[in-house]
Amino acid sequence: MSRLYMADNTSNPADSGENVKPFTMDGEFGLIKTTGNTETTSVKATLSAHQELEQWSNDYVVETLYKQDEVDNDEGEETQTTAQKVFLSGQGNYKLTDPNHRIFAFASYEDDRFSGYQYQGTLATGWGQQVWKDDTSSFNYSVGPGYSFAKTQEGEDASSFIVRGAMDYQWKISPTATFRQLISTEIGSENTKSKSETSVAAKINGSLAMKVSLLLNHNSDVVEGNENLDTQTAVTLVYTFF
To answer: What are the E-state strand segments in 74-136?
Structure first.
């Protein structure tokens, strides 16, 4: 079995203000191939960017996941696709007179073939705040109303008004290691969609790092036969382009 991963977003927002770059971008490409008793192939790619301007602080993410497994059936072994996902998101944060207080606008789109939905999209706006940011840690959150656009695999409309909340905490454990916790939830009458990513990244050199992460995706309303919670655990290599 061979494992290779590159993961996203190891830039350190806990750096002091004078060290913040106006634009950073991280890329991820992952491949897991297993042979023997179990035949699987998984491919993951992510591109994330952060833009820090005088009046705006913006984040962008593009993520894809694809997985195939060898399964036994009445006709013998067969290769089946068991994961196929595309996720896009962007958030703009407009800084007010106090730059730690912000108005945000968020948009996302997810096409996950195995989630029970044909697609899930979100538009939201509201209040955001950078609670603190120093040389070792940072914490910010956002909360506000929005609208979720969704359609089930059966073609039923599952759109509804929502309240969206998100938080991002980072702690610089040492000069080369960073802990990060990302949490978001979208509460609606049709479905509550929540996501959590917990990670620790350790730099190997200036642009390369190793990252251990646990990703949880939860939908309160799923079709019969689907699990409410999806989990993903990875040990990855992270490359920062600039």
So the answer is: 76-95, 101-112, 117-133
